[in-house]
Design brief:
five-stranded mixed beta sheet; disordered C terminus; single chain; globular; 12 helices; alpha+beta; about 450 residues
Amino acid sequence: MAAKRDTEILAGLYLGTSKISVVVAELSETAPNEAHIIGIGEAPANGLRKGMIVNLEQAVNSISDAVADAEYMLSGIKVSRVVVAFSGVDVRSGIVYGKNSLGAKPRQIVQEDVEKAIDNALSALDIPKEYCIVHLVPIKYALDGNKDIDDPLGMTGIRLEVKLMAVIAPVSVVHNVVNCVERTGISVSGLILKPVAAALGALNIDERNIGAYIVSVGGGMTSLAEFSDGALVRVAEIPIGGDHVTNDLSCVLKIPFNAAENIKKDIDLTPEAEHSGTVRVESRGRTLELERSEIAEIAENRLDELFADYVRPNLAGGGEEDEEISSDVVLSGGVALMKGIEAFAASRLNASVRVGEPVLKSQMQPGRNDARYIGVCGIIVYIMERLRNPFAYAETPLSLFEGSGSSFSTGEQSGQRRRTSPAEFMKKITDSVVELIKELF
């Protein structure tokens, strides 16, 4: 089988705490704005803790293994560049506003007018010197006071306004992710935060318009994202995940971590579940009889803390404890597969809760198409939405990392179709960030 041209292939890399996943999709020959997932590879995540790189060499090897697993499934295809989904405890998001006067007489809006409105919005954004912009997400535009405009290009008016969600992350975190991936010989063509990937991977267009919260409970982190009126308006990350449940079981029951992970998968969280009897576990040459009731209690205590004490305050925005959360909550990640998790989370969040599925599930291979792979699916959704609309999401200019040990590539250099790049207009509106980063590196 002949190798496919590089321009036909899209690839995403998801850096999880428990596993690293690689998703590969192929652009449609007949419909350039469509792509189809053709393979998913994965490998255990060594060298990462809470989704962040703590051992560079181990992480490099894990990424290489995940890429090799994906390539093994795809005869003749080599992954040469990826969009990377990553997380960070210190990620921040906020809303900023900008406007641009188009002149005394109404005229048609062009790309430069949108760029200037975004530039003016960013002038009000106070970015700490150790941070950089990861995403700029236009929420809505307004033209001459008429709000809720999705795309103003080509429309006529005299005053353009924009509402943006800006997401920033520590420069060091971003740089370590890029450096780690590129040490495998693969170039980074873009970045996406894991909460954004989870949101895009879990919700179709109608669900985004209705509004929903996405709560992705991974191994070391829990990611939160909110869609409202079709737009992504907030993201956050909590440094607690499924591994904390496993660690509690391991410490309290005095059993190995792997044994605790196995018994965690069989816990039933439904209120009417029977927890009688024991579970037999082999530990250090001994056979232990563990009470199911104690196992369930340990897991419930940690998950109660996560949902009631951390997730709910984020979703409710500091509202009253008994205040109902108006939008549905969609769960993703490995913990979402625990029995009874929907009812358990609903009772702690006082909200309607369901376990999500990848929006591209029909394209994904069996065994790698459940809630654990929503974020992986979201990377491909993200890439395609940026191809269709370069202003949908804007990232930190790739040029920010030149001269800092990275060979960050935009993808156009490798033969991708030429299109308006968010990085191009972002470069000129983040000059102050560039200067600060130069001081750091």
